[in-house]
Amino acid sequence: MGTLYQGTPSLVDDLKVTLQRLSLLHPLEETEKRTMFLSNIDQVLNFNVDTVHFFAANPDFPPETIVDKLETALRRVLVPYDFLAGRLRFNPHQGRLEIDCNCAGAGFAVATSELSLADMGDLVYPNPAFQQLILGKMESLEKEDQPLYILQVTLFKCGGFAMGISNSHTTFDGTSFKIFLENLASLAADKPLAVTPYKNRHLLTARSPPRVTFPHPEMVKLEIQPGAESNTTVFEATQENLDIEIFRLSSDDIAKLKEKAKSGRGNNVGTRITGFNIVTALIWRCKGLAGYEGDNEEKTSTILYAVDLRSRLRPPLPPSYTGNAVLTAYATASCRDLEEGSFSDMVEMVSRGAARMTNEYARSVIDWGELHKGFPHGDVLVSSWWRLGFDEVEYPWGRPRYSCPVVYHRKDIILLFPEIEGVSDKGVNILVALPSKEMKKFHALFYNFLG
């Protein structure tokens, strides 16, 4: 069961990218000048998310046509998504970030590479050089005037191309970004919007007065400067030398793990034995024990993972809600229990962590954020790109060959990736970065457990 990349594949470290042009694009039609409220969930996500979407050559869509269609589609999509052409501002009177929808523009860059898509090697294995396909900021603009969204189109010599997107996490979560991509693709095909975005973030406003009705051990109070970027305070980038490995679970592996979880169940009939829950439970056990020497019976491990709130709130959020509608669920256990407990118990704890996220619990977390301005805190965060479906978006020139984030290796964040397009066995790839000693133990735990 399970497979492993045999060492680090040979990665291309220079994609030989040359920037050809860079501009600010404005909405195709006049938009209302306004201020957009950002929820307490949006507030703590003041950092950029970088994604790359690779496309094979399509003879019906030469490079100049691709560029023209994406440029026009972006200008058109900036009308319903007017906030993407705005700028992030700190409101000192409110003590919070907001978006000034001032039509200042989104970034659009065109670049070329001397390489072919085939020269890129294994697209699934995270390559730091993919950063060359992303334009994170526009050097000609001051920090306060940086776009919230920049699209870079990089044309390969084979006719294929990459669409690199850098956007502020305050603008989208994974679900709303997928909807945005569907809309961008639809407009590129000269069709209407696929989904009308719902932009009112006030649906996640804290209650007045705030009412924290649950303890929140998954949150920690942090002192930061008002309006300061907060991405490095959730999980600090480590200076340690890390081993990087990708562990793969096939669909058969996942099915067998589900059976293992079911076979050990007692009366826990409410446990949801989903693919995500069993993969997360396995990761938790391996990561929690990788640094555990058995000499401290009181040592605990807390795992964090995102839960979509859209259907959990009362009333439910509109499915097309554009902001960040996710909160961090958690599960905590002693390392001794992780070592000696049953797999079904671990799956139950992960399932229970998600089930805890009721309307009242979510409102309590949001209210906690109003009072304390804090962040999620745990030993490991599972960040799942597994089923977001970015590679399922149908553009005029076809679906992406692969879509992935540009990865910054951190030992306390474990990433779940989907398979590359065209692979029939839809398993999951698990990216782990750990110090060498811990990686060896993680590796042994993972494969010993799979048997």
TrEMBL record:
It comes from Tetracentron sinense. It comes from the Eukaryota. Belongs to the plant acyltransferase family. Pfam families: Transferase. InterPro entries: CAT-like_dom_sf, Plant_Fungal_Acyltransferase. This is Omega-hydroxypalmitate O-feruloyl transferase. GO terms for molecular function: acyltransferase activity, transferring groups other than amino-acyl groups.
